[in-house]
Amino acid sequence: MKATLETINQMQADGVIGRYAIGGAVGATFYLSPAATVDLDVFVIIPQTSGVLISLAPVYEYLKLRGGSVQDEYIVIGEWPVQFLPPANDLEYEAVTQAITTQVEGIVTRVMSAEHLMAIALNTGRAKDHNRILQFIEQVPYDPAKLKDILERHGLNRKWKSFENKFLGEGQ
Amino acid sequence: MSKPRLQARMASLTFSEKIKILEKLRDRERAISAAGLRPKQPKKPTAR
Fold it and tell me: What ipTM was reported for this prediction?
């Protein structure tokens, strides 16, 4: 992971990407007990040079020149297949901009807040996302008031109610 | 050790320690897939 994060940080320093934040299962592991995953989800803000469409081509070109290899939707950096994900909505953009700074093996990096990870998982809505939310609820490394605020501001209250009804009953 | 206690203990590790565990889990997944003991997982539609 150290080599992977060093490369991503260098890519940021070189201006290929703007701010970034680790999300997905690896991001959740910052708060929870580790759960198996084979990839690293990195949400990146791509500086727009021209046009409206956001392209990851500069990221791939930069990394391929530095030994990265493309595998399906991933690019392998160090030992980790990395998926670069430009924010798809305001929630994900906010999650990147409000990410927490931390370190892995002495390398500075950024991880999404627990509440943003939960909101994104709720919005994505696959079985494994629901499972992750349940882990957060069981292990309680989050601020319920902050989560409520995020859910309200991003129009996720109905999805949360549905999640509560399905997985938590009336007790929550 | 009970599951909740183990989870709490694992959750309290530093991020670096947890990443080391993730890397071991990832390598184990790869070894299992490479040995053909588990069918390759279909591509995920969207990773978020």
Answer: 0.85
Full residue range of the structural domain in which residue B26 is found? 3-34
Q: Report which of B32, B24, B45, B18 is spatially closest to residue A79, judged by C-alpha positions.
A: B24
| pTM of the complete model | 0.89
**Which among B21, B23, B46 is the nearest to A124, CB-wise?**
B46
CB pairs under 8 A between A and B: 76
Q: Split chain A (172 residues) into runs of 10 and give each run's mean pLDDT.
A: 96 96 96 91 87 84 93 91 96 98 96 98 96 92 94 98 89 49
> Which of A68, A83, A112 is where one domain is finished?
A112
Report how many domains make up chain A: 2
Contact A74, A37 (CB under 8 A): no
